Amino acid sequence: MTPESYKPEWVPENASEAFATKFVKGIDGNLSNTNPYIQQNPQQVKKRKSLTPDEYVEGVLKGDRVILARAITLIESKSQNHYELSQEVLNKLLPYTGNSLRIGITGVPGAGKSTLIEALGLYLISQGHKVAVLAVDPSSSVTGGSVLGDKTRMEELSRQQNAFIRPTPSGCELGGVAFKSREAILVCEAAGYDVILIETVGVGQSEIAVRSMVDFFLLVMIAGAGDELQGIKKGVIEIADALVVNKADGDNIQKAKLAQAEYAHALRYLTPTTRGWRPKAYTCSAYTKEGIPELWNVIKDFEKITKDNGFFYERRKQQNIDWVFSMIEAKLKKLFYNNPAVLIHLDEIRNAVLNNQLLPTTAADKLIQFFKESISVDF
Ligand SMILES: Nc1nc2c(ncn2[C@@H]2O[C@H](COP(=O)(O)OP(=O)(O)O)[C@@H](O)[C@H]2O)c(=O)[nH]1
Ligand SMILES: [Mg+2]
Known about the structure:
This protein is α/β, with parallel strands linked by helices. The chain has four domains: 5-44, no CATH class; 47-96, Up-down Bundle (Single alpha-helices involved in coiled-coils or other helix-helix interfaces), CATH 1.20.5.170; 101-321, P-loop containing nucleotide triphosphate hydrolases (Rossmann fold, 3-Layer(aba) Sandwich); 339-378, no CATH class. The protein contains 15 helices and nine strands. The chain has helices at residues 36-40, 53-62, 65-76, 80-93, 113-126, 139-143, 155-158, 174-190, 206-211, 234-238, 253-267, 292-308, 311-337, 340-354, 360-378, and strands at residues 5-6, 23-24, 101-106, 131-136, 163-166, 195-200, 216-222, 242-246, 280-283. A seven-stranded parallel β-sheet has the order 5-4-6-3-7-8-9, sandwiched between helices. A two-stranded antiparallel ribbon has the order 1-2. Strand 7, helix 10 (234-238) and strand 8 (242-246) form a beta-alpha-beta unit. Helix 3 packs across helix 4 (80-93) and helix 14 packs antiparallel against helix 15 (360-378).
């Protein structure tokens, strides 16, 4: 079969053959003629039918992983329609959320977070848990790439019936990623996942955002990299509930133990973030799996202690309230910067500040005044 070809309309009349591409007419009928892959998977080429809110809800509650993945895609979508639909779905799912242990895992790229998550995830599944893995990756918004790396795919874990892995959130600003991750946690819980592992990188604000959505926060370190090299500011150690020196295997065991002792010492001088809990340092190997069950025991102890003293529930309530207000801030900010009256004056006022003709405070007041006036007209 030779597909008929056309010159596109926008090609100049006298253009030579070399000027432009030809359009190849679309192929009707049997797609497998052109793509052998399609032949093997004819059902995959069917256009996806859009789901109603109730279909999403039912699918998620049944634990259907395909629908769960689609629900998260819906949540991550930037379209207003999808946003409204996702809110409807989430509100219906709300009564079924909350029943998981939410665990954040941070550390510099290469510390072994993904490998550790896979090892821990497999261990948890062997213990009868259902494990969901999410990622908060601040770089994906800027570069389109991922600093969480290839291992985020977690091939062995992803083959498990009781695992759900969502490697990278689709690009949006960190604040947005954080909001969407919170909602993704909720749908995973509604789908019956009782342990949610959230991987993020210790390279900026992302760990603060993740701390604000999890119950337990684990910092993964490696021996001999030096604090600066690991990019670990004191602030990150302070918000961790445990610190684990990974790659304690082979020749590295002694170094790992030494690092553990140093961190254990340092932790003694920090004020714990979780009431009734003193963070400690441990070692483990995501390769040999040594220390993985012990790490889980630490997390279980943490859960028990904080549930007994009530802090677990208090923190979750506080996180929900913080979520409301940071959402308001994010939305107001967006309204402000997309406001036509603000947009008209923004450059002029920015230049006035740059040229020292206007005090920054006055500049802010002026812009807010434009914003307020335009809003009152709208009402
Ligand atoms: N020796 C050893 N290597 C590990 C261990 N965990 C991870 N790695 C290796 O360290 C590299 C980075 O691992 P990865 O999980 O992608 O790190 P992440 O960037 O923190 O997620 C990979 O080459 C892993 O195979 C471990 O326990 N022992
Ligand atoms: Mg990773």
